[in-house]
Amino acid sequence: MKSTAEVKIIGERYNDKYTCGLSMLGSGSMDDFELVKDTEEVEELRRPDGLVLKVSNTKSSRADVTEVVTKVANEGKDPLTMEMLTSVLLKKIKADKIHRLLSFWSAEGKHKVDSIKELDMEHSWSNHGIRVLKFGNLGSMPVRQFFPFVAVEDSETGKFTGVQLYAPSSWQIEILVKSGDVVTIAGGIADRDFGHWTKKLMPGEEFVAPKALVATGNSLEDVCDKLVKAQNPDISPVDNEMGIVFNEYCTTWGNPTIDNLKKLADKIAGKGIQYLVMDSGWYGKCGNWWDWRGDWTINTERFPNGLKELTDYIRGKGMIPGIWFELENTSQEAPSFYETNHLVKKDGVPLTVGNVHFLDMEDPWVIQHLDKYVIDNLKDNNFGYIKIDYNDTMGMGCDGPEGMGENLRKKVLATQDFFKRMKREIPELVIENCSSGGHRLEPSFMELASMASFSDAHECASLPIIAANMHRVIKPSQSQIWAVMRAKDSDERIWYSICSTFLGRMGLSGDVYDLSDHQWELLDQGMDFYRKVSDIIRDGKTTVLAADTDSYNEPTGSQLVIRELGNRALVVYHRFGDSVDLEEYAKGLGIDISSYKILEEYGEAKKDFSAEALLAEL
Question: Are residues 165 and 263 in the same domain?
Answer without folding.
Answer: no
